[in-house]
Amino acid sequence: MNAPFAPCRTTIGLADLADSELCAALECFVAAHPQGTPFHRPAWIKAVEQGTGNAALALVAQRGGSIVGLLPLNEIHSPIFGRLLVSTGFAVDGGALVSDGEQGRALLAAAETLAQSRSCPTIELRGGKFAEIYPDWVLRTESHCGFVAQLAVDDEAQLLAIPRKQRAEVRKSLAGDLAVTVGSSADDREAHYAVYAESVRNLGTPVFPRSLFEAVLDAFGDEADILTVRHQGQPVASVLSLYWRGAVMPYWGGGSREARRLRANDRMYFELMTHARRRGCTRFDFGRSKTNSGAYHFKRNWGFKPEPLSYAVWTAPGAVKRDADPTSAKHALQIALWQRLPLRVANSLGPWIARGLG
C-alpha cells in the first residue's frame, strides 16, 4: 500500500537580502504579481537602507521551494517619532503580496513577532487586500488618495485632455522662456536636489537625504530619471520619476519660489506626460496626496480623479500610537517654524530628521 501524500507546508522566514539569487527570485515574484509595485522590489527597500540607514527586511513565504508570499519592510528609527516597521519605507505603496490560494495572515503574524523582537511598537502597511487579511489591524481608507489616468495618443490630444482652466496655464508655460532636460547625470541630480530641498522647506517639511535619491536612481537604472525645467540656465522645477508596467510615476518633485510665477511646475508635468508617452508609457500615475490637501486639489485641476487608498496600522498592546502626520495639529507649530528657517540650515538639519519619517 502506498504511503499517503503529505502536502507541502508553507514556511515563512526572514530573507537574506545579501543573497543575489534570492533577490533575483523575489524581483521576479514582484514583477509577475498583479499587485506588485516598484515599492515591493528588493531594489527599493535596499536603496532605502543604503540611502537612509533604515534596515531592509523581507519576510518570505515558501511552499515546495517556490516563493508564494512576500512582505518587504524597512525598519525606521527616529528619536522624534519612534520606531516602526513599514511596508515600505519612503513609499506610497507596499503591503503583503501572496499567490492565489495563500493566506496573507501568516505573513502579518510573522511581522508582529518580528516587530516585537526588534522593539518596534508600530507596523504600517501602505497597500494590500486589507479586508481579507488584516482583520486585527486598524484600517485607514480616507487619509490619502491616488491619482491615475491614461495618457493621450499625441501631444495635442494630451493638452486637450487637461481641463480648460489648467490647460490655459500649461499653454502659457509652453510659451515661456523655459528649457527642459531629462537624464540622471550628476548635473541632473544636483539640480533636482537643490529644487526639491527648497520646495519642501517652503512646505515646512524636512528634506530627505540626497543619498536616498542617489540610491534609488542607481538601483533602478533606466527605470528612473529626472526631468528638470530651467529658466535662464537656473533649475526652477524638477521631478524624479519611476517607470513601472507602462506607467510613469512622478515621485519626488517640486519647484522653487520662482516656479509659480514662471508656471514651471505646469510645464514640468506636461513635459513628463509627453516624455513618458515617447518612452512607451500609457498611464500617468500622479501618486498619492493627503485628502483635500493643496496637492490633492492641484491634481484634480489636471483632470485626475481621486481614488481612496487603504493603509493598515498595527500597534503593540499597551504602546502609544505613532503620530508622524505632518497635517496633525500636534506638528503645526513645528511646520510653521521650519518654513522660516534659512534654506542652508533646513538642508543641514532636514536629512537627519527626515530619515525617521519613513
Describe it.
It comes from Novosphingobium rhizovicinum. Residues 167-300 form the BioF2-like acetyltransferase domain. This protein is α+β, with helices and mostly antiparallel strands and 358 residues long. The chain folds into 2 domains: 11-141 and 310-322, Aminopeptidase (3-Layer(aba) Sandwich), CATH 3.40.630; 145-307, Gcn5-related N-acetyltransferase (GNAT) (Aminopeptidase). The protein contains 13 helices and 15 strands. It has helices spanning 20-32, 42-52, 105-117, 130-133, 155-160, 164-174, 186-203, 210-220, 257-262, 264-278, 294-301, 332-339, 343-354; strands at residues 11-14, 56-63, 66-78, 82-87, 97-98, 122-125, 138-140, 144-150, 179-183, 224-231, 234-244, 247-255, 283-290, 306-308, 311-315. Strands 1, 2, 3, 4, 5, 6, 7 and 15 form an 8-stranded mixed β-sheet that branches. It is globular and about 65 Å long. The mean pLDDT is 89.
Topology:
Elements: E1 11-14, H1 20-32, H2 42-52, E2 56-63, E3 66-78, E4 82-87, E5 97-98, H3 105-117, E6 122-125, H4 130-133, E7 138-140, E8 144-150, H5 155-160, H6 164-174, E9 179-183, H7 186-203, H8 210-220, E10 224-231, E11 234-244, E12 247-255, H9 257-262, H10 264-278, E13 283-290, H11 294-301, E14 306-308, E15 311-315, H12 332-339, H13 343-354
Parallel strand pairs: 4-6, 12-13
Antiparallel strand pairs: 1-2, 2-3, 3-4, 3-5, 6-15, 7-15, 8-13, 8-14, 9-10, 10-11, 11-12
Helix pairs in contact: 2-8, 6-10
Pfam families: Acetyltransf_6
Protein name: FemAB family XrtA/PEP-CTERM system-associated protein
Domain BioF2-like acetyltransferase: 167-300
